[in-house]
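Sequence and structure are kept together here, with a separate record for every protein. An example record follows, reproduced without changes.
>
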Amino acid sequence: MGLQRARRVALQVVGLYRLAHLLYAAGVVTADPVDARAAAILAAVCAVTLAVYGAGLRHGRIPDRLMWTDAGVNGCLLPLAAAVAIGEGPAAEAHGWLAVQALSASAAAVVSLRWRGTVLCFVLLTATSLAVHQVVRRPDTAGLLEHLSALAMSSGLMAVGWWYVRRQGILLDDAQQRALAAEAARARQAERTAHHAALHDTVLATLTTIASGGVDANAQAVRDRCAREAAYLRRLVQLTDDPGPGRPPPAGGTAGTAALEEAVRSAEALGLVVKAQYHAVPELPGDIAAAVAAAASEALNNVRRHAGTGLAYLTAAGRAGGLEVTIADRGTGFDPADTAGAGTGLRRSVHARMAAAGGAARVDSHPGEGTVVELRWPA
């Protein structure tokens, strides 16, 4: 981003440089008497300039082929044509208004081309000025030397300015990358802290109670709690598992993952077994994460209350620019068109909540075939 911005700024500076040369040329051409041949050449210069710099401003840089078009047509072809067709006057001079366009062409080459292309462009522009000097009827050696000096100075000053601006853009990009890395590290640390607290309050508390002998380890309630804690540990391992060499680390998505995990654990605390999977859950704004988790919690509660099964499946995965959460069961199912069967929970707590957050929900269910609830953000 920083380097792109630096290139765009440099291109704008070069564009203003070319505009100044065109204004100077227009003043010379429109002076009495007006030479129709010079006016036609100026029109051609303006047309090429408009195409080249228009494309450059749209794309953030001048494409190589257009840069060579500008240097070849405005800097080389037209000055030679003017020297042959007109022969003398400000349009045909090796240092006249037409040759001056080479100054901005060389400056643009510094920004747009690699260093070898820049050197080649400078050599071609210099050779063109020398050739025009040999062809015109009244050569002006002092004017030619002044023009060549200006051409070298234009290229040199632009090279120094572009080096500085480019360096600042690279430093800005590096600073942004470090800031993003630091923010990701803080997010991972916050997630680890949250998991450590959850482990302390759940798994560690359960193990400590069993170790102290204060409860019967074979009691059904204790076994159910151990099963829930084991499921939580499996999900935790999934989230923090090493992705292996050459693969990117998992995008745990602190807010989204934590909110969904809270919904899963709340459902498990009420006796529902939830098989949860998280795949590259993206970072979400806090209010969005809360809305998606609340809708998922309502969907899980519907499974527990109405599906006639004690098992649900929750899958959360990142998709293009957002999140998709699926809650499925293999229970009794229902007809979504039946308003009484669907109840107000799905309408208010799932559909309406997701819509208010800028997302969408879809329910797919048939009697005897289970239910699938899809939550998408953004819609």
Remarks:
- Strands lie at 273-279, 311-319, 322-329, 360-365, 371-377.
- The two ends are 28 Å apart (CA to CA).
- The CA atoms of residues 56 and 63 lie 7 Å apart.
- The first strand starts at residue 273 and ends at 279.
